[in-house]
Input
Amino acid sequence: MSTQFPQGFYWGTATASFQIEGATKADGRGESIWDRFAATPGKIRTGETGDPACESYHRYAEDIALMQAMNLNAYRFSIAWPRVIPDGSGTVNDKGLDYYDRLVDALLAAGITPLVTLYHWDLPQRLQDEGGWANRASIEAFVRYADVTVARLGDRVKNWTTLNEPWCVSILSNLIGEHAPGLSDLKTALQVAHNILVAHGAAVPVIRKRCPDAQVGIVLNFEPAFPVTDSEADRRLARMHHATFNEWFIGPVMGHGYPQNAWLDYGENVPEVLPGDMEIIAAPVDYLGVNYYTRHLWHDPSSSDGARVLHQRDEGNVSARGWEIYPQGLYDIITWLHKTYDIPRFLISENGMARDDQVAEDGAVHDPERISYIRQHLEVVLRLISEHIPITGYMCWSLMDNFEWAFGTSSRFGLAYVNFETQERFLKDSGRWYGRVAGANALVD
Ligand code: FCB
Output
């Protein structure tokens, strides 16, 4: 198999506004649900908040220098809604938009294509005070925010993603409660999931109107699910994981609706769906962003008597987050998506590995496991491309170590190491290697 990637392949990294920007009060930025959540004792393991994170609001030139050192030609980042419209639905804050103007201009001057995500989780707190995404008023507010932002940047930014990982926005944040706003209610979580998909679909034509040559898509996270034994209980758990985690989001976006088995299983907790909603959600997209990290294994211990073990996790083969390293899962997910839905193009919008990185005596960070992780996933990407599945690029999570949500800065995913005391950043071994790959547009040693 060729180690060469197609001409024009996007090599980049991904970040999110709240995870890197810091400067949470600068230039009229409003409060977001993540500011409120992080300030609540016990929510972030390290007790940190979004300040300073990586101070990218002031240090974006250093970030771009890292990208240039890695020969990258694309950068996936997100815009902070509370910088643009501080209270979510009221006055537009030009100073917030000015920051993204400067960032976009600097990227373009460096030959780096901006791939912009409008919503990567930092909902203005005032909207949350009024019910957050469970309140349909947030849909309208999002569409206006999208309109205002694309009107300002759409002359230069042509790649627009409405939102990142609606599973996290809904289930992780409103049922499991691990992310902001930290609620634990299934009915609310499912209404949030529905409303945010409507917000996505309603924003798509508005983005196209403001930027007629835009490529518009959505980023979803996927996890293939496997039963540990061949017992019916384990197989059912795996099936339901696939339905609730994967199909629940891509199904409506691609016009297939919600998966029936999960809909029935959720009983009276299913969301209220207004006439026309499913058509709005199914607005045609130009690409699907796939975030892939790991697979999920399911086991009901009371059900396995005599059953055959199908997949046993190798405990040594996990990242510092305990996520199993399973590159085959990326192959499984993309081939399933390609067969099942009419998806024009794929972007690998996130993939990467947490590691307990330490600065060695020679001043460098040696992270061979991360190189191996990325290499194995890039091999899968090459295999998919050789099978004629259109994949336009690979965005490694992440450019640099950053504020990793509930883990604070304790969970490092960067290709660049960040010293959070001095804000000094430099490439790890993985970053140097990734730079050689991007420079060659080929999988090199
Ligand atoms: C994804 C998020 C991203 C980052 C990675 C590790 O779910 O989109 O912000 O936290 O996980």
The mean pLDDT is 97. The longest strand covers residues 215-222. The two ends are 15 Å apart (CA to CA). The chain has one domain: 10-440.
